Amino acid sequence: MKTFFNVQDIGDLGKALQEARQVKATPFAWKHLGENRTIMLVFFNSSLRTRLSSQKAALNLGMNPIVLNIGQDSWKLETELGVVMDGDKSEHLREAIPVMASYCDIIGIRSFAGLKDRDYDYDETVLKQFVEFGGKPVISLESATVHPCQAFADLITIEEYRRKRRPKVVMTWAPHPRALPQAVPNSFAQWMSAADVELVIAQPRGYELDPKFTSGARIEYDQMKALEGADFVYAKNWSCPGVSDPSAYGKVLSTDMGWTVDAAHMAVTDNAWFMHCLPVRRNMIVSDEVIDSPRSLVIPEAANRVVSAQVVMKRMLESL
Ligand code: CP
């Protein structure tokens, strides 16, 4: 495996889930694979789960992880090509990427969407430069439009807790005070569309995700109707994806607190499990009552981030 950005990169989902079960049961069984190998984990943005789970996965595989916080541990990096570098950025990605790549065998990158220029973000301009100029396998640790390690962990969690062959999975938009990228909902929709689940996306009008991620999903503007009979409720905020109106890209179109997932919302489901990728704003996205209930999966979901990262790194090590 040379890149891990989209669900297609993992191949057969059944095989990937089986491998995840093996990795979870015997996490140190492939420690020899990472001997004398190094993974560089490059963070342009904050992280708790991704940073720690990626390091833990690498250590389980016997690899040496190096974590670099851009702008804190390193020079500030310029990411746009063709600019006059007369500002506060001292080094360009064009040099920094091959230098970092020369010190490692695999690179992971966290680089959020800027939410200013839709084309720049949706072209995955920063991620593509790591592929082009690094020459090493690349993992998106949440880039402008995708967060595949999260979506894979979400799928592993749904597989562990589903009680029906084909569960109803509802991803619902929920309010948030700030504009957030679409990477998590894009990847969740993409992975659930590829999995054997009934996917419904509930959202206010204007929040339609890019159709390249949502094929097969039913879009519903009535949140309560969407949640009826759900087996899993996946709450997430995202800003306007700008599909029908590019000028609205990255904007907050609604702060309707009626969309906060509370006990009344969960009451119309089929005793659904509650999921969220974390970090979560309590009593904005989800009520205390729901996230603290025995039906909340947020902690096992976060724990599975080690498993998803380890399967991906294992496959990359096997293909070096
Ligand atoms: N879910 C997730 O990616 O968490 P972090 O932003 O803390 O890494």
What key attributes describe this structure?
binds phosphoric acid mono(formamide)ester; globular; 320 residues; 12 helices; alpha/beta; single chain
Helices, strands, pairings?
Elements: E1 3-4, H1 13-25, E2 38-43, H2 49-60, E3 64-69, E4 77-78, E5 91-92, H3 93-101, E6 106-110, H4 118-122, H5 125-134, E7 138-140, H6 148-161, E8 168-173, H7 183-194, E9 198-202, H8 211-214, E10 218-220, H9 223-227, E11 232-236, H10 263-267, E12 273-275, H11 288-291, H12 298-318
Parallel strand pairs: 1-7, 2-3, 2-6, 4-5, 6-7, 8-9, 8-11, 9-10, 11-12
Helix pairs in contact: 1-12, 2-12, 3-5, 6-7, 6-12
Bound molecules: phosphoric acid mono(formamide)ester.
Phosphoric acid mono(formamide)ester binds near residues 49, 50 and 277.
Characterization of the model:
Helix content is 36%, strand content 15%. The radius of gyration is 19 Å and the shape is globular. It is built from twelve helices and twelve strands. The model has no long low-confidence stretch (mean pLDDT 97). The structure holds phosphoric acid mono(formamide)ester (CP). The site of phosphoric acid mono(formamide)ester (CP) has 9 residues, from α2.
